[in-house]
């Protein structure tokens, strides 16, 4: 087996999650999302926000704990309800250096497109 797991046999996970605070009585949820980002910054896990969620990478249990901690923090900030969509990918067929799971996927697609575009410019 590869480095896709850590010493405790925890799968390395690349997650995309969208946390939606509900029932806040406010049209903007940016303050609540910022609270989740503060939580993620303390985890040491690699993450990147995008327009409709956040990519998060690390050992499965740590990724899930981070999402749990975001829920707890956003509830503590005053959101009475939270709905979260989570998509998680794992793989054990090759080694993935920690923090590079999502970058590797994006880079591979960019390489394919660059090769196509380069071939069309001859």
TrEMBL record:
<dbReference type="GO" id="GO:0005829">
    <property type="term" value="C:cytosol"/>
</dbReference>
<protein>
    <recommendedName>
        <fullName>Thiamine-binding protein domain-containing protein</fullName>
    </recommendedName>
</protein>
<dbReference type="InterPro" id="IPR051614">
    <property type="entry name" value="UPF0045_domain"/>
</dbReference>
<dbReference type="Pfam" id="PF01910">
    <property type="entry name" value="Thiamine_BP"/>
</dbReference>
<feature type="domain" description="Thiamine-binding protein">
    <location>
        <begin position="15"/>
        <end position="109"/>
    </location>
</feature>
<dbReference type="InterPro" id="IPR002767">
    <property type="entry name" value="Thiamine_BP"/>
</dbReference>
<dbReference type="InterPro" id="IPR029756">
    <property type="entry name" value="MTH1187/YkoF-like"/>
</dbReference>
<comment type="similarity">
    <text>Belongs to the UPF0045 family.</text>
</comment>
């Amino acid at each position: 087996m590869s480095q896709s797991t850590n010493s405790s046999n925890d799968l390395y996970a690349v997650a995309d999650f969208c946390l939606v605070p509900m029932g806040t009585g406010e049209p903007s949820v940016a303050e609540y999302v910022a609270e989740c980002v503060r939580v993620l910054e303390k985890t040491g896990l690699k993450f990147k926000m995008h327009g409709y969620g956040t990519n998060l990478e690390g050992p499965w249990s740590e990724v899930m704990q981070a999402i749990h901690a975001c829920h707890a923090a956003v509830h503590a900030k005053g959101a009475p309800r939270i709905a979260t969509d989570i998509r998680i990918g794992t793989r054990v067929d090759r080694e993935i250096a920690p923090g590079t799971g999502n970058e590797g996927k994006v880079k591979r697609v960019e390489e394919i497109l660059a090769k196509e575009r380069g071939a069309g410019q001859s």
